[in-house]
Amino acid sequence: MSQEQWTAVDRYLTDQLAPEDDVLTAALAAGDAAGLPAINVAPNQGKMLQILARIQGARKILEIGTLGGYSTIWLGRALPVDGRLISLEADPTHAQVARASLARAGLDKIAEVRTGPALETLPTLEAEGAGPFDFVFIDADKRNNPHYLEWSLRLTRAGSVIVVDNVVRDGAVADPASTDPSVVGTREMIELMAISPRLSSTAVQTVGTKGYDGFALARVLA
């Protein structure tokens, strides 16, 4: 199997099951125009997040890592009209692009982008009593994944769902000798998932337009 074949399969699945509309296409174009890195989730991954949030019956969603708001739109569309989504983004330019895309999607009344390092804004959410969140999507700097997981547990409830993107790292996650901060952070997070009595967790490998990677999925038990 090759990257070319993975991409062709993703294209077929996306065309059939998760086609983009003008709003999603415009969000990607806005990110490109602003020079944002093309590291957003693929359309079929965005649709998967949306379906998971709908299955969960989520009314409050927390996203850690906004980028240009592409995944935020998929998740925001899973919410009821009185739902709430808070997305945390460290880069002010990324946040500005995301806010414009969310407004274009008609989600600016229920989706909010907060700017600043997540480890600084997460305590603010706790102080405000913004939680508990029903669904958390973690897709930010990987070195801090263990901290994001710990904060997610503080801001969720029994029954909440936590999804973490990019956990396979082209297979490097299986290398205990890796000194890559993203790999080290991801391994520490997975090991925390494994020992936490509050979580039932799993992880899967994926291939597609984004190459070889994977995601972790956890349910909060208590």
Q: Could you characterize the architecture of this molecule?
A:
The chain has 222 residues and is α/β, with parallel strands linked by helices. It has one domain (3-220): Vaccinia Virus protein VP39 (Rossmann fold), CATH 3.40.50.150. The chain is 44% helix and 23% strand. The chain contains 8 helices and 7 strands. It has helices spanning 3-17, 22-33, 43-56, 70-76, 92-104, 118-128, 145-154, 181-195, and strands at residues 60-64, 84-89, 111-115, 133-138, 156-165, 199-208, 211-220. It has a 7-stranded mixed sheet, with helices on both faces. The longest helix is centred in the N-terminal third of the chain and has 15 residues, at 3-17. The termini are far apart. The model has no long low-confidence stretch (mean pLDDT 97).
Task: List the keywords.
Rossmann fold; alpha/beta; 44% helix; 222 residues; seven-stranded mixed sheet
Helix content: 40-55%
DSSP helix count? 8
Q: Which overall shape is indicated by the principal axes computed on the Cα atoms?
A: globular
CATH architecture: 3-Layer(aba) Sandwich
List segments where confidence is low: pLDDT < 50 over at least 5 consecutive residues. none
The assigned structural class equals alpha/beta
Q: Into how many domains do the coordinates divide?
A: 1
Which oligomerization state do the chains in this entry correspond to? single chain
What is the CATH homologous superfamily assignment?
Vaccinia Virus protein VP39
User: How is the largest sheet built, in terms of strand order?
Assistant: 3-2-1-4-5-7-6
The radius of gyration is 17 Å
User: How is the main sheet built?
Assistant: 7 strands, mixed
User: Taking all residues together, what is the mean pLDDT?
Assistant: 97
Range of strand content: 15-25%
Q: Return the string of H and E elements.
A: HHHEHEHEHEHEHEE
**CATH third-tier fold name:** Rossmann fold
Number of strands: 7
